[in-house]
Design a protein that fits this description.
- There is one protein chain.
- The chain is an alpha/beta fold and about 210 residues long.
- The protein has 2 domains: about 140 residues, Rossmann fold; about 55 residues, Orthogonal Bundle (Arc Repressor Mutant, subunit A).
- It contains 10 helices and 6 strands; from the N terminus they run βαβαβαβαβαβααααα.
- A 6-stranded parallel β-sheet has the order 2-1-3-4-5-6, sandwiched between helices.
- Strand 1, helix 1 and strand 2 form a beta-alpha-beta unit.
- It starts with a strand and ends in a 9-residue tail after the last helix.
Length: about 210
């Protein structure tokens, strides 16, 4: 039996994917997560072979969750299922450990194909994002986030989503003073001085969703 965990903050989509996958002989969805923080301990507990992961989730984004999943006792095959098709998201997801990247505009058959591919040790990219990955490789050196550590990206994402420092500290299990220190380092590395500029960089880089989109 292939055990699968789904992580997506949209309940209707999650239920639809679950129903789809449970109809495949030999597959079973054994767990669901609403956000990145929830999926990491769920993977440790259930030890699934496959994780279906959204990138745009609250509290802890998909890229950061991916990096943490790679440190699990039994590392699952991760299939990203995302609405994002931008160069940065695709490149960062694959480099963080995803074995497949499927867009949410894809068919059910394509998602099934991607899962079967990763179970065989192969990789899969939706045709819509193949070009994005190639472009991202050539543009990587231009990314404003390239100098940030994984922890700094986590802090930046949470701050740019409007979370107060004290809430960010609780989410990441660190002190508020450490959050302040990370924020100062982020601003210095990015060469900016205000929260408004920080949010603009985060949106341009695909770290957080553009609220005007």
């Amino acid at each position: 039996m292939v055990k699968i965990v789904i992580a997506d903050d949209h309940v209707v989509l999650r239920q639809g994917v679950k129903a789809l996958l449970n109809h495949v002989e030999g597959w079973e969805v054994v767990g669901e997560a609403d956000d990145g923080m929830e999926v990491v301990p769920l993977v440790e507990q259930l030890e699934p072979q496959v994780v279906i992961l959204d990138l745009s989730m609250p509290n802890l984004g998909g890229i950061e969750a991916l990096a943490r999943i790679q440190k699990s006792r039994k590392v699952p095959q991760v299939v990203v299922l995302s609405a994002r098709e931008d160069d940065t998201s695709v490149s960062e997801a694959m480099k963080a450990g995803a074995r497949a990247y499927v867009t949410k505009s894809s068919s059910a058959d394509e998602l099934n194909f991607a899962i079967r591919a990763v179970l065989k040790g192969q990789s899969y990219l939706s045709p819509a994002v193949c070009g994005a990955l190639l472009r991202a490789d050539s543009e990587e050196s231009k990314s404003p986030l390239r100098e940030l550590s994984t922890r700094e990206r986590e802090v930046m994402k949470l701050l740019c989503e409007g979370n107060p420092n004290r809430d960010v500290a609780k989410m990441l299990h660190i002190s508020a003073r450490t959050v302040d220190s990370h924020r100062a380092n982020i601003l210095r590395k990015l060469g900016i001085n205000s929260n408004a500029e920080l949010v603009q960089v985060a949106m341009r880089s695909g770290l957080v969703a553009n609220q005007n989109a």
